[in-house]
Amino acid sequence: MSRNVTWDRGVSLPEHAIWFDPEVTRALAVVTHAHTDHSRRHRETYLTAETLALTAPSRRPKAARVLPLEAEQPVGGGKLTLVAAGHMLGSAQVFFEAPGGRLLYTGDLKLRGPRPVRMPAADVLVIESTYGRPHFLFPDHETVVEAIATWCRRVLAEGVTPVLLCHAIGKAQEVMLALAPYGIRFALEARCLPGTEAYREAGEAIPDYVELVPGEDYSNRVVIAPPAGKAAIRRLHRYRCALVSGWAQDRHFRAIFGADVAFPLSDHCDFQELLDAVDLVGPEQVYTVHGFTEDLARQLRRRGVRASGLRGVEQLALALT
Ligand SMILES: [Zn+2]
Prior knowledge:
By secondary structure, the chain is an alpha/beta fold. The protein folds into 2 domains: 182 residues, Ribonuclease Z/Hydroxyacylglutathione hydrolase-like (Metallo-beta-lactamase, Chain A, 4-Layer Sandwich), CATH 3.60.15.10; 123 residues, Rossmann fold. The chain is built from 9 helices and 19 strands. It has a 7-stranded mixed beta sheet with strand order 7-8-9-10-11-18-19, with helices on one face. It has a 6-stranded mixed beta sheet with strand order 1-2-3-4-5-6. Strands 14-13-15-12-16-17 form a 6-stranded parallel beta sheet, with helices on one face. The chain starts with 5 loop residues before the first strand and ends with a helix. The C terminus is likely disordered. The site of zinc ion has 4 residues, from loops.
């Protein structure tokens, strides 16, 4: 494998003519999960069946090559394997092996969440750095879920509607699954419906929900809505908003999204998980993409790891719509 990794509107191995999560049309692409499908016209697109199902029909790739996790596929002069990423339903890392080396591209990654994840050893690691600054340290998943459930029950007991502000695809459904054992029933803003239906069709145990109808009263349900564009929420009688995001640890964010409280439940690695991921893979070279690329690369170099930032798009706007 050529170890030449570049950022060219997507992570690219130029000698193998393959792109990971490209933002523009390419001949050969791997789409790691349903947040990153920017183009539907790649000549060949490798992805999981669940990622395909979670992608809006109008944005589905025309030449989709569905690949199950852990199935080895010859492509681009090497062997491609999709590996569980722990980020959301269908999310995958890319493991690419060719004579000369092994590369792992994480895409969006979560080590300590409820979903399976595997970190194979590789010579080159391209890792996301969304929360690549040391102050991003999240409490464990169960503790945050418990805090969200307690807050929802308290707000409901006051006769007020709790509103959880979550990304419409992935996060909304993961939050519903996490809160299912608490017997909470949901009303979903329209943008959260397609993802929820795709989760249910994939066999996930999604709890009871109805569609939020603007102007109606929801005194016994928890509303889930995306953080941006809250027209339907403002028509609720009495409500209180909680932002559910790793950005809860950034105090400016609560105010930006008009949330009363914020819970740091993230489907991304926090700073310590990123360091742990690098340890598990044991690479000779690390490249960081997305978010705080230079910060994470600097922190890794301080720990004796060869690391540098690849340019990446800021995903914040995407993550919060
Ligand atoms: Zn994502």
